[in-house]
Design a protein that fits this description.
Elements (H helix, E strand, L loop, with lengths): L1 E3 L2 H13 L4 E6 L5 H13 L2 E6 L19 H10 L4 E3 L3 H4 L17 H5 L3 H16 L3 E5 L3 H13 L5 E5 L19 H6 L2 H14 L5 H13 L4 E9 L13 E10 L2 E10 L1
Parallel strand pairs: 1-4, 2-3, 2-5, 3-4, 5-6
Antiparallel strand pairs: 7-8, 8-9
Helix pairs in contact: 6-7, 9-10
The structure holds adenosine monophosphate.
C-alpha cells in the first residue's frame, strides 16, 4: 500500500491508473479508523480496481471552538488497518498541502446546508463541500463512498455533485454500530465511562421513535416530544436538535410521508454525537 503526502504524487498515480482504465474508488476520512470506516473501504474494494482512502483532518470544517486540535489521531494504526482491508493507497496530505497561502475559493451548497448540523456549525458544510471537491479533483475517482452516519453530509455532497455536474458516483453505506447500538464514531474515544452509558440515549431514542411510527403514530410533534424526554432522562446530555422531516430536502414537513428522517445531535458531556434513522410507517 502506498502512502502519498502530496497532491502531485496523488494526481500522477491516479492518472497512471486511469490510463489503464482502472475503476478508482475513493473513501474520504479524517482517520482514527473504526469498523464504520473499514466497512466503507470494504464496499469500495468490492466495486473498484484501485481503492484510495484519504486521511485528512480538514481544518476548514471545524469551527473556532471545536475539537480540531484534540481530534483523535493514530496514523500507524490506521495504516495497518487500511493495509488489512486491501486499500491500495492512503492519500495523507497536511493542511498546507491542501490549503496553499492565498487560498480563497469555496464551495457553498446553500439551502440543504442551513438546517440540522449547519445551524449549529456555521461554515461546516462549506468546509466539507470544498475539501470533498478538491479530493475529487485530485484523486479523480469513478465513485466515492460516504457513510449515512453523516446523513446531512451525504445530502450536501449529492447536491454538489448534481449541481456542478461532477462525474463521480456517490455510494452510501449504512451506519455501523457498536453491539449495544451506539453509532461508531472517532469521537466516541472522548467519552468517559459514565458518558459512554449516556451516549446510548441517541440509539434508544431512535428505537422509541421507530416503535411509535410502527404502531401508527403520524405526529412529528409527538415523536419529537418522546425523543426529547428520553434523551434528557440521561445524565450529561444537552440536545442541539431533534429533526423530523423530509429525508431528501431536509425540510421539516407537515405531511407525514411513508418515510421520514429522524436526525439527532446531542452533546454528552463535551462530546457532540449525531445519529439518524429513516422511520417507515
Ligand atoms: P470521518 O472520518 O468521521 O469524517 O468519517 C469518514 C467517513 O466514514 C464518512 O463518510 C462517515 O459518514 C463514515 N462513517 C463514520 N462513522 C460511520 C459509521 N458508524 N457507520 C458508517 N459510516 C461511518
Amino acid at each position: 500500500m502506498k502512502v502519498l503526502r502530496t497532491v502531485d504524487q496523488m494526481k500522477a498515480l491516479s492518472l497512471e491508473w486511469r490510463s489503464r482504465d482502472y475503476i478508482i474508488g475513493l473513501v474520504p476520512t479524517m482517520g482514527f479508523f473504526h469498523q464504520g470506516h473499514l466497512a466503507l473501504m470494504d464496499k469500495a474494494r468490492s466495486m473498484a480496481d484501485r481503492v484510495v482512502v484519504s486521511l485528512f483532518v480538514n481544518p476548514t470544517q471545524f469551527g473556532p471552538n471545536e475539537d480540531l486540535d484534540r481530534y483523535p489521531r493514530n496514523f500507524e494504526k490506521d495504516k495497518y488497518l487500511a493495509t488489512e482491508h486491501d486499500v491500495d493507497c492512503i492519500f495523507f496530505p497536511d493542511a498546507e498541502e491542501m490549503y496553499h497561502p492565498g487560498f480563497q475559493t469555496w464551495v457553498e451548497v446553500t439551502d440543504i446546508s442551513q438546517g440540522l448540523c449547519g445551524a449549529f456549525r456555521p461554515g461546516h458544510f462549506r468546509g466539507v463541500a470544498t475539501v470533498v471537491l478538491k479530493l475529487f479533483n485530485i484523486v479523480q475517482p469513478d465513485f466515492s463512498v460516504f457513510g449515512l452516519k453523516d446523513y446531512q453530509q451525504v445530502q450536501v455532497i449529492k447536491r454538489m455533485v448534481e449541481d456542478l455536474n461532477i462525474p463521480v458516483k456517490i455510494v452510501t453505506h449504512p451506519i455501523i454500530r457498536e453491539p449495544d447500538g451506539l453509532a461508531m464514531s472517532s469521537r466516541n474515544a472522548y467519552l468517559s465511562k459514565d458518558e459512554r452509558k449516556s451516549a446510548l440515549c441517541l440509539y434508544n431514542a431512535i428505537k422509541i421513535a421507530e416503535n411509535m411510527v410502527k404502531n401508527g403514530c403520524k405526529s412529528r410533534a409527538e415523536i419529537k416530544k418522546a425523543v426529547n424526554e428520553h434523551i434528557l432522562s440521561y445524565p450529561y446530555t444537552k440536545i442541539d436538535y431533534i429533526f423530523v422531516g423530509n429525508p431528501e430536502t431536509l425540510e421539516e414537513q407537515t405531511v407525514f410521508d411513508k418515510k421520514i428522517l429522524l436526525a439527532l445531535a446531542v452533546h454528552v458531556g463535551k462530546t457532540r454525537l449525531i445519529d439518524n434513522a429513516i422511520l417507515e410507517s
